[in-house]
Design brief:
The structure is a homodimer. With about 130 residues, the first copy, chain A, is α+β, with helices and mostly antiparallel strands. Chain A folds into two domains: about 80 residues, Orthogonal Bundle (Arc Repressor Mutant, subunit A), CATH 1.10.10; about 40 residues, no CATH class. Chain A has four helices and six strands, in the order ααααββββββ. A three-stranded mixed beta sheet of chain A has the order 4-3-6, with no helix packed on it. A two-stranded antiparallel ribbon of chain A has the order 1-2. In chain A, strand 3 and strand 4 form a beta hairpin. Chains A and B meet through strand 1, strand 5 and strand 6 of A and strand 1, strand 5 and strand 6 of B. Strand 5 of chain A pairs antiparallel with strand 5 of chain B. The structure holds manganese (II) ion (2 copies) and zinc ion (2 copies). The site of one manganese (II) ion has 4 residues of chain A, from loops. Chain A binds a DNA duplex (30 and 30 nucleotides) through helix 4.
Chain lengths: ~130, ~130
DNA sequence: TATTACTTTAGACTTAGTCTAAAACTTAAT
DNA sequence: ATTAAGTTTTAGACTAAGTCTAAAGTAATA
């Protein structure tokens, strides 16, 4: 069982069961912003007996413990993102793919000056086509 | 049947049936960013026989014709917004309420300079608490 | 009127996600 | 080692959002 992953889970207060390590091995390494159903399919490849409930429970636990974040960008499904620090997202309207945009690539001003709103966090959601 | 609404529907190439006018009367006037289920409940008050399929069909038609826009901001449900011009959204984490933020209240820079991305549109999603 | 096109309807179906209660597995205590 | 207690996993029931279908109802056309 991947020792580095085991340590990372323990470091976030998560008991490293075999199933949780399997989920973590995939979700912490990917950049594809997968849905829970996609994580389930991936984990099943190597761990055919894993249940849907375990994958959902595990992902929700990871979110609660700050190991990944949950994003709601497009209809119907929540996706998960191992990049938990602030960044923006670009959605390719042709493919549906979600791309990460570094925080400093975009400048957002006057958010603190909104009257009547206590902004705790924000991010920019961009849509268009990947070029090149 | 509300003549102003009828004209607005015709102006967007939509046949103004009684059900469509009922949906439009609610959705074009509200600022609460309702879900389809909420629209269904509201329309049923005055039009008890309306079906779920009709409300969904009608909302999808309105989106297609540019009368309202669809937003995906929080888990599980799409919401509809009669303000179709560019603006941002603030989500009150305590209540779940979605608030409109005028486009000019926030300044977003360098979006056109993103290498490899053809940005067609974007908006800022803010989260926190309503103050006051 | 007859024909055609469009719209609505009930309910079946699908998909994402939650919940439950039992089984399996860990850990700690005798 | 044995037991007990706590934790995790599991299958499958359940819920909620949304789509699809095929028939019935309306409206426009000839
Ligand atoms: Mn962390
Ligand atoms: Mn319009
Ligand atoms: Zn990301
Ligand atoms: Zn809005």
């Amino acid at each position: 069982m991947n020792a580095e992953i085991v340590e990372k889970l323990r470091g976030h207060g998560i008991q490293p069961s075999a199933q949780r390590v399997a989920v973590a091995e995939y979700i912490l390494a990917t950049d594809e912003h997968p849905s829970a159903e996609r994580v389930l399919a991936r984990v099943k490849r190597r761990f055919p007996m894993v249940s849907r409930a375990t994958v959902y429970n595990t992902l929700n636990l990871f979110v609660e413990k700050g190991l990944v974040q949950q994003l709601v960008l497009t209809g119907g499904r929540v996706v998960f993102d191992p990049w938990v620090e602030d960044h923006h997202h670009f959605i390719d309207e042709a493919t549906g793919k979600i791309h990460d945009i570094p925080w400093d690539a975009i400048e957002v001003k006057r958010v603190d000056r909104l009257k009547g709103f206590d902004v705790r966090k924000f991010h920019v959601v961009l849509k268009g086509r990947r070029r090149g």
